[in-house]
Amino acid sequence: MAAKIIRSVALVLVLGVSSHRTLALADEYPGWAFPWRQSTPTTNKPDDSKELSVPGSDIHFTEAQLHNMSAPPDWYPQEHSAAPAIVVRSEKTWACGYCHLPNGSGRPENAKLAGLPVDYILSQVAAFKSHDRHTDSSNWRATQYMIQAISNVAQEDIVSAAQYYSTQPVISFVRVIETKTVPRNSEGFGVMTPLPGKPVPIGTRIVEMPDDVERFERRDPKVTYSAYVPIGSIERGRQLATKGGANRPAPCAGCHGAGLTGDANLPGPPIAGRFPTYLFRQLYAFQSGARSGDATLPMQAIVAHLSQADMIALASYAASLKP
Ligand code: HEC
Ligand code: HEC
User: Is the CB of 283 under 6 A from ligand 2?
Assistant: First the structure.
């Protein structure tokens, strides 16, 4: 009897302190969401002689130019409005457009900035600076690059980048595909890349891959992506996103707007049609504490109810919506 009481007291204590952190720790660490290939350092200089192109652009860049982080390739300059220097050609530092692309379409390993509200962009840059937003994966170089990228940028340049990106049209380049098996794949830089051979079971993860690795490597903003997700993820995500209730997150549209496309009068940024591995990493970061601070309190309350399978479902659902 006494033992039984002690056991139930212990249980109450465990349940009583069960916060979002305990839930995060209950699942295995989702290393699959942080793919970063271990590369062997090379002293080979990138080739500066051969002119490379991508379909649909008549501009050419050499490999050395493609790697210039201060003056990144801009394959379709006529298709976006005039961009400030910090976005496309920066004298002193890396240009935002190297990672987020000149039109803000972004890539799965960083973030789509096109169409985000100016204030939200500024608040996130400030959060990276103050360390409220970081990464808890030592393997994940992407966030470390972002923090380095903004460390010496004048606030007026951040503001002009934010104003520019917020006015660019939001286009989705990702197709969400429910499946039992995925093409064999290995870690690339921030995405998975396909390998020849027999398909493998998907498991409980999202496998996001560029459809054309060469165009991805040439930083073509029009490269498309396939995001493979477990069967049933989109409908499960839709249910979680729309039907609040006991032990369920509050409906996402209440803060992220109808269709999750954002709304100037609501606190949440647009999340429709964005890269699902990016969205998953953010949900996980709110739970693990890698995104913290007062602005994240509403999201901490949301993720307290979520398992990683739920986060996969929500990311799949949001990514499948029209931006
Ligand atoms: C070297 C690559 C790189 C450069 C250059 C870079 N970023 Fe980023 N940025 C990232 C990555 C990677 C992330 C996602 C990090 C994460 O989620 O932890 C990110 C995230 C962001 C976000 C968060 C978006 C969201 O939806 O929450 C903003 C805003 C942002 N960057 C703005 C900028 C601005 C402005 C510049 C230029 C001054 C810039 N970045 C330059 C890599 C970069
Ligand atoms: C009570 C308001 C509220 C609700 C409800 C809410 N969110 Fe959020 N969400 C926010 C706020 C505010 C932010 C920005 C947090 C910050 O500044 O770091 C955010 C940020 C996010 C981000 C990160 C976006 C980015 O660009 O990095 C994702 C992903 C997200 N929410 C998903 C969801 C999902 C999925 C749901 C429903 C299950 C949901 N949210 C419900 C308020 C909310």
Answer: yes
With a 6 Å cutoff on the Cβ, whether 114 touches ligand 1 is no
Of ligand 2's listed atoms, the one at least distance from the Cα of 314 is 35
Q: What is the phi/psi pair of residue 244, to 5°?
A: -75, -175
Nearest CA to ligand 1 atom 23: 124
Both structure tokens of 110 = 């960083």
Among 315, 321, 172, CA closest to 261: 321
Contact 116, 269 (CB under 8 A): yes
Taking only the tens of pLDDT, the chain with its 323 residues reads 444 444 433 333 333 333 444 444 557 899 999 999 988 878 888 889 999 999 999 999 999 999 999 999 999 999 999 999 999 999 899 999 999 999 999 999 999 999 999 999 999 999 999 999 999 998 999 999 999 999 999 999 999 999 999 999 999 999 999 999 999 999 999 999 999 999 999 999 999 999 999 999 999 999 999 999 999 999 999 999 999 888 899 999 999 999 999 999 999 999 999 999 999 999 999 999 999 999 999 999 999 989 999 999 999 999 999 99
* Ligand 1 probe mutation, 99, 122, 155, 160, most atoms within 8 A of CB: 99
| Pairwise CA distance, residues 315 & 79, whole Å | 29
Distances from the Cα of 183 to the Cα of 70, 99, 202, 239, angstroms: 35, 26, 9, 28
Instruction: Find tokens 């409906």 and name the residue.
Output: 251
Output the CA 226–ligand 2 centroid distance in Å: 24
Residue 299 near ligand 1, beta carbon < 6 Å:
no
Name the residue with the closest Cα to ligand 2, atom 2: 255
Ligand 1 centroid to Cα of residue 96, in Å, is 7
